[in-house]
Amino acid sequence: MKRSTDKAVTHVLNNHKGGKQLQTVWDRYEAQQPQCGFGELGVCCRHCMQGPCRIDPFGEGPDRGICGATADTIVARGLARAIAGGTASHSGHALHVAHVFKKILAGKAPDYAIQDEVKLKAVAVRSGIDVEGRPVIDVARELLDKALSEFGDKGEPLTWAASTLPLGRIKVCSELGIVPTSIDGTIAEVMHRTTYGVDADPINILLGALKCAVADYTACHIATDLSDILFGTPQPVVSKANLGVLREEAVNIALHGHNPLLSDIIAQVASEPKLIAEAKIAGATEGLNVVGICCTGNEVLMRHGIPLATSSISQEVAIMTGVLDAMVVDYQCIMPAIATVAECFHTKVITTMAIAKMPGAEHMAFNEENAVECARAIVRQGIERFTYRNPDKVCIPQESSTAIAGFSAEAIIGALAKVNADDPLKPLIDNIVAGNIRGICLFAGCNTVKVPQDHNYVEMVKKLLAENVLILATGCASSAYARHGFMTSEATKEYAGEGLTAVLTAIGEAAGLGGPLPPVLHMGSCVDNPRAVDVAVAVANKLGVDLSQLPVVASAPEAVTEKAVAIGTWAVVGGFPTHLAWYRQCWAVSW
Ligand code: BF8
Ligand code: SF4
């Protein structure tokens, strides 16, 4: 099977100098064939030590597990636990930002600061906090307390969900009994009800899973809001994407993972003249070149214009270029295989988080109380590693595309305000009503080894754009579109239908881009998916309708992780017809 539709990735896979013993995710996938059919269908259970139990999907063998669980119960429990796993990841991410926020307000993390007071006040007002005449620090403290209370036993609906979703959705959630009152409590509840001998009613289990997905939405929204307050709300920025952004004459350092707490500081120190001079003394005539991978790459692309090297499925391929001097990781979507691939090259893999270490990698604990010094030490490891580079192993592909990123909800509304300052949403709504924009599709999620990388994204988007559907993208979906050149004005001219082209041209020219807006708007990382909801909610509230009545859909056509399952599930709760491709099956669901 073809491995990737990305020419840069394909070039490196075919021409790398890592040796024949080098294995990638695609080799390991082939070695796993045939994969277990019971597992693919989700009808295997090992929730207790009497198992594993398997249900025969052909009706010829057991139709119940040893405890009597049916296939429906087993599948529902497995899905619920996947959603709980994804929610735990987003909860951990959001709580980490909140804890650092707390240190900042206590004066214990001097390298961070509140960079976006406008966003702070906007989130505070939305959360019911009085801001008039109050010092910023007081507002920040009250907002932080509110955020932290969402994780524990709050005993009332979560503020971030209740204050950002429209009434119609809140009513649906209330009627179904899926209003969470604690992020972490809801995760624990799913783990409880899916353990041996608790909830056996598949519908009831799935309702618990939906409640957990609402908790996931809440955690994602908190992570986005607090990150914007600390690092700035993204605005449109022009950069590059794909492996061609790596440079032979520079020290190349890849930031990989998810949380901007680490990557934003490294992005900042990498422009320090002293460190650049050290890189040049080491022989890198072009100094330092920091690039991003996965969602942390999206974070620093959106806020700093740092080029995006590649996405999750091709993370090993970045090392196989032979010019990556350090790969610095925090947590989530980091394959343990990168340390093994790095053995074939000079690349140093550096783990930084206590909960995410890796055999074969060097661990450099990142301490937010001393963030800049930690970041400098990490960058110096990259500089030192550069001196071990083997010129015979260099294999940098040519490909890189221009990518306009940074479309936060605020940036989109800001661009629309250039067309109609008094009523920014009017141009969007008018064009939807007139049929110039036939709908909006949010693409989210990963790249899976089970289809050629990016194939589903590219084929689907070409058809949707031709049908005048505006595209929003996050996570590895946004990486796919950035690498394939869909985030440029030229892409609008090439792929968008007549009506959509006219709208994007009018907005782009009014916003001073000198051409159309890109047809695919990069809205950030996976935790940033609520940015898309914020835009949809603003439109729904203005029209006085529910989200389910808008022509907005969501798709994760190459999903991999439990996080993608959690996000896809809250998109369903949000009323968006949602497509999630998983284990070679496609589920299309709506509420
Ligand atoms: O959170 S899209 S592979 S990198 S899970 Fe991971 Fe999937 Fe990529 Fe970001 Ni999201
Ligand atoms: Fe089997 Fe039931 Fe135990 Fe699952 S919980 S492994 S179905 S006995």
UniProtKB/TrEMBL annotation:
Binding site for [4Fe-4S] cluster 1: 36, 44
Catalytic activity: CO + 2 oxidized [2Fe-2S]-[ferredoxin] + H2O = 2 reduced [2Fe-2S]-[ferredoxin] + CO2 + 2 H(+)
Any one of the GO BP annotations: generation of precursor metabolites and energy
Binding site for [4Fe-4S] cluster 2: 45, 48, 53, 67
Binding residue positions for [Ni-4Fe-4S] cluster: 258, 295, 333, 446, 476, 526
EC number: 1.2.7.4
GO MF assignments: 4 iron, 4 sulfur cluster binding; anaerobic carbon-monoxide dehydrogenase activity; hydroxylamine reductase activity; nickel cation binding; peroxidase activity
Superkingdom as given in the UniProt entry: Bacteria
Top-level EC class: oxidoreductase
Cofactors, names only: [4Fe-4S] cluster
One Pfam family named in its UniProt record: Prismane
4Fe-4S is among the record's keywords: yes
Keywords: 4Fe-4S, Iron, Iron-sulfur, Metal-binding, Nickel, Oxidoreductase
Family matches, as PANTHER family: CARBON MONOXIDE DEHYDROGENASE (PTHR30109:SF4), HYDROXYLAMINE REDUCTASE (PTHR30109)
Stored NCBIfam families: CO_DH_cata
Protein name, UniProt field: anaerobic carbon-monoxide dehydrogenase
